[in-house]
Structures are given as C-alpha cells and as structure tokens.
Amino acid sequence: MPSTAGKLLLPRALDPDNLYAAWEDVRRNRGAHGGDLITLARFERRLELNLLHLAERVETGAYQPGKVRMVTVNTGRKLREIAVWCVADRVLQRAVLGVLDPIFERLFLPVSFGYRRGRSVGDAVRRVLHLRDQGHTWVVDADIRDCFPSLDHAFLLSLLRQRLVDQDLLDLIALWLPFGRPRGLRRSQEPRGISLGAVISPLLCNVYLHQLDVALRRERLQEVRYADDFLVLCPTEASRDRALETVRAALAPIRLELNTAKTRLASFREGFTFLGVTFEGRKYRYSWKGMPVEGSDLGGAFPLDVDGYP
After folding, report:
1. How far apart are CA 138 and CA 144, in angstroms?
2. Mean pLDDT in residue range 143-151
C-alpha cells in the first residue's frame, strides 16, 4: 500500500529550509554549469531569490528542466556519456531526494550497499569476506547489460506509485526521466533509460533493482549488490550454476538482462574482481592512491546473519 505520508512530500521538498539544505549539498559536491551556463557562483549571488522562484515554478506547474549538457568521460573501463544538469535542477532533485530517501531506506534490503547513507564499498567488501568465511566460495559475478539506459519508465513509475500517493511529485519525477539520457535513446524517444549524472538517478536505480533483491531473497540466495554491480555467493559449484539461471529469470520480469560477455562463473580459488577489489583464495587486494593494499579480512565480521537478513 502507498504511504499516506506521501501526500505531503512535494510541499516538504519545496520547504525553504529543505531547498537551502539541498543547495548546500549541491555546492559541496561542486560540479560545472549545465546547458544554461549558470555556475554555482552565479546561482549563489541571488540564492534566496533563485530558490524562491524555483519553488514557485514547481508549485504553479511552470517548471521545466533546463538544457542538460552531455560530456563523455573515460571511467577506465569504458567511455560513458554523463549528463551535467543545470544547477537549479540539481538543487530541486536533491530536495526531492531528501524526502524520498527515508521512505525507501526502510524498504531496501541489507544486501544492497550503493548510494545508501551509512553504507560503503568497504561494507560490501566485508559482506563478501563474511560470506566467504561461511563457506560461500562459488560466485556468480553478474553484469547487467546497459542497466541505467535500460530502466523502463512505466515500470519504474509503477514501483514509485506503490509507495507514493503524491501525484504532483510523481509527475515531477516523470518529467525528469527523458532528460539527460544517452544520445541513442534521445533519438529513438523510447520510454526507457535514466540519466547518468542526475542527482535522483541512483535512488531510482535502487528502487528498480530492489525487485531483483527481493527475488533473490525469496530463493535464499546470498547477494551483495552495489548499484548495478552484484555478486551471488554460493556454497557449492552446482548451486552456483543454478543461481545463474535464477538471476537470469529474476531479471526478465523487470525488463533487464545479463551481459553474457561480462557475466562469469567464478570462485575464490581462481579469483575475481568486484568493486575494484580482487579476491583470490584467502586474500584480497586493491590499489589506493597508486599504492597496492593487500589483506585477508577487514577487521571483524559484517554485522548480518549469513543470509543478510536480520
């Protein structure tokens, strides 16, 4: 059932104190100007007026996102198109995120670690090591094919509608979805794909992939997920092979599929890399500021039961 508190979410997002807190967060994260050429410094010069006008445009239905500037970034593994949104849009998305985060944080399972307050890559690594120490040494190292560009808008909005009853807020989120997508999707106008670079996108991705977490939990599989990167750890080779088929079946209803070229069946014995950390046997290693780091544990078991569900 949707949360009745959701009826008041948009006014809470547009509250002056919340908008100012959102601005402070955007300023701390720095970043360049969007397509309107308005920098953080220029936005700040008339901050109170800019925040007031932003709230008024949303309240009156006059708000439209500004032009999104697309830049290509080399992540080290591939070239990605990143969207640089206008400052005002980043502030508004951060204000909305501030009221949505607590609602969905109560919903998410403890097996997901990406873009959640109080959780980190280190926590995900600890859970991997904890499961290894419990005998889950056979691994499905999964890769979703073009995850962010593949998220279906109608399905995503239906998931949000299950928790939110504020139609104005849902309409605002729907307004953002077509902006800042990869060039190919913009040309096709297909109603799928969310912006890499939008403040709201990581939460939307977690809402979407929560369906995967639930499906794997139902099968009592041991998952570790950080955004769209995830592992399934199993006690035997045969159970690992079955888990791969379960993952594939779990993705089909949410209109996603595995990247077969990058998904692999692995084990701690032969080694694999997850979130930049290479696990091999009883050791793990990674690079930090150009220096190699190696260890066998991260100091204490991760505070979850073996299956990850308290």
Report:
1. 19
2. 94
